[in-house]
């Protein structure tokens, strides 16, 4: 089994709940808070950097 290790600098950031806003036309718009989007992107970049852009096959089972 291959092991992958990488470090994400700074304090951990919890995944925030999606936000929902009601538009004037009666519809709703859902979005992910910026802090969550930024931390997920940082995690993705650190992983790809540590693995030289390695991607698991669809359906791969991972132990984290």
Helix fraction by DSSP (H/I, runs of at least 4): 25-40%
Mean pLDDT score, rounded? 92
Measure the end-to-end span: 13 Å
Spatial strand arrangement across the major sheet? 1-2
Strand content bin: 5-15%
- Class based on secondary structure composition and strand pairing: alpha+beta
What would the principal axes of the Cα set say about the shape? elongated
The overall strand count is: 2
Give the helix tally. Answer: 1
- Which ranges are low-confidence, i.e. pLDDT below 50, for 5 or more consecutive residues? none
Main sheet summary? 2 strands, antiparallel
The ordered string of helix (H) and strand (E) elements is EEH
What would your notes on this structure say?
The protein is α+β, with helices and mostly antiparallel strands. The protein is 28% helix and 12% strand. It is built from one helix and two strands; from the N terminus they run E-E-H.
Write the layout of secondary structure elements.
Layout: E1 19-22, E2 28-31, H1 34-51
Antiparallel strand pairs: 1-2
Keywords:
64 residues; two-stranded antiparallel ribbon; elongated
Sum this structure up briefly.
The protein is an alpha+beta fold. Helix content is 28%, strand content 12%. The protein has a two-stranded antiparallel ribbon with strand order 1-2.
């Amino acid at each position: 089994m291959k092991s992958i290790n990488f470090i994400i600098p700074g304090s951990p950031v919890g995944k925030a709940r999606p936000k929902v806003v009601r538009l004037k036309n009666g519809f709703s718009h859902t979005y992910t808070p910026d802090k969550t989007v930024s931390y997920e992107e940082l995690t993705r970049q650190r992983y790809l950097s540590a693995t030289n852009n390695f991607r698991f096959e669809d359906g791969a089972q991972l132990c984290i």
